[in-house]
Amino acid sequence: xxxxxxxxxxxxxxxxxxxxQYLASAAGxxxxxxxxxxxxxEWKEMAGFPLAGTYRTPDGVTSHVMExxxxxxxxxxxxxxxxxxxxxxxVVLARYTATNKATGKPIDVRVAHHxxxxxxxxxxxxQFVDTALVRDAMRDSxxxxxxx
Length: 148
Fold this sequence. Notes:
By secondary structure, this protein is of the alpha+beta class. Helices cover 33% and strands 41% of the residues.
């Protein structure tokens, strides 16, 4: 079997595409992040998560998810550590770390992400996270916003 070395920056291997998405997100490079997403991407944030919902298009994902996280959290980072790949499916075990801007409370929570990659682009994403831990870090900001 012959192994051909491919450049990570242009590799269409599903795990490489997903890894580039994490690196772009951590760097705050939304243009590079959008470059990993298919034009018709379907991005699902888990029910109970502050940004819960389904977002479509690369601009929709970055404006409704990444930019919003940046408004409410300092240093929001998804630390990817374990990849399980089967064909076009990539499951990543990771951690979110950040500090809520309104409350000053930090989070360090485990998360699992399921990506589907086709033709070198992420076509689907689904998040799995303990949403209570995230919301607890926001609790004071929620109470203040509601006048409680």
